[in-house]
Structure formats: C-alpha cells, structure tokens
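**User:** I keep going back and forth on a fold encoding question. It is easy to fool oneself when nobody else works the same problem. Could you pick a protein and write out its sequence and tokenised fold? Could you put it straight underneath, so I can go through it closely?

**Assistant:**
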Amino acid sequence: MGNLDGKIAVVTGSAQGIGYGSAKVLAQHGATVILVDFAEAVKDTAEELKQMGLKADWRRCDVSKLDEVQETVDDIIKQYGRIDILHNNAGVNRRVRFEDLDVKTRDFIFGVNIYGVWNMTKAVYPYMMKEKYGRIIITSSVTGVKVVDEGQTTYAMTKGAVLSLAKALAYEAGPYGITVNAILPGWVRTPKVEQVAADSRPEDPEGAMRDMAGFIPLGRLCRVEEIGDLVAFLASDDAKYITGTEMVIDGGSTLPETFNILHA
C-alpha cells in the first residue's frame, strides 16, 4: 500500500458498485479520491470511506452534460490543484431487443456511456497536459468487445466505443506523459447484478448468483475491490509503460467456446 500517496483521483459512477470498489482501493493506496456520481448516495459513500480513515470527497454531477462536468472538474482543480488519476466508470444499461429500442432509451445510454466518458475526459485532459502527467482508466466491458447477449445492442455499442477512445487517445496523450487504458470486466457482484438475480429468481437470488458463477472457470463473480486492484495498478508507476491496452478481468468467463451443457 501507499504507492499512490499524494495523488488526486476522480472516479465517476462511484456511489456504489465498481466505482465504489475503485475509489476504496485507490484511497487505500494513499490517493485522495473524489467520488463523482449523479446519485445523492455519493455523499454517504464518501462519508463511509472517511469513516475507514481514507481520504475522500464527493461531487454530484450528471456526466452526460458537458457544462456540468466542466464546472465540477474546475471546482476540483480549484480545491486540489490538479487531477492525477481519472477513472471513467459511470455507465448504465437497459436490456431491450433492438426492434423494441426507442430513441429516448438509446440516447440515455449513449449520454452516460459515451458522452459521459468523452465529457469527463475532455474536461480533465487539458489539466493533465499542463502537468505533463496523468492516468486515465476507462471502464469498457467484455460485452460488445468479446461477447454479446440478447438485448445488449446499444450497451455493447457504447462499450466498444469507449474502448476505441482509450486506444486513440493513448496515441495522442503519450507525449504528454499521460497513459490511457481500458478495463473490461465480466460478471462483477454489484448491486445491479444482485438485482438481476433477484428479479430472475426472487425465491432464490443466491441460487441464481451461484448459477451465474457456474459458467466462470474461477467459479465465482468478481468482487468490486478486485476491479479496484486493477485500476490502482494502472494508476500507479508500476504501469507507467502501459498505455492503449484493454485488460480483461472476468475470471475466465469469456474462455469457453460453448456452454458446458454436454457435461451437465
């Protein structure tokens, strides 16, 4: 621990789930972490981290709105002087078959998953250029990049888009000492995934979770803190020569060519 001492980190979509795990681990490694989320719960999450003795702050922000993002980033810079680490994690999903997808839903998903990442990066990037230093980590997904499922056309498209952004920006950012990488999580035990399990099998949600894990070679879902471990590595000097990469963290879930039905 401690390899991020003195660093200032911003994590979006951090009121819960992967963003919470990332913020927690970054702070455990010594960073001061500003949690950014549209949900009011972001304040309570930041306070929870403070109760653990970690350095945390928070801002409420709709990342789909560039003016709001710029105001938030400028305010963070005013208070902390710089932003060393940006984890673009905020994301939403709606499982709708393509023929049933309406424009409002499409634009909502695009707004957070694509424009949100673009907006936050656009606002932070000039400050990193000025400092000649920065670590940008973008949460993509195995969905759309490695695998797909029914009702995921729009979500998959957005996750492919932000992976492409990471690669293209890494090329431009290199001369400024800024690295840009994407992480591709598989099944992670987040409140959203727990809700999916509860909705699909209300009489036995834990059984549903075990069945999800049954198709993963490591036999379990990822913990949010394990995503945080990867983010902290990419944010550290241990990864200073890694940029433009896509790092899958899925317990091997994308390895099987077919479901294991023949051996059931």
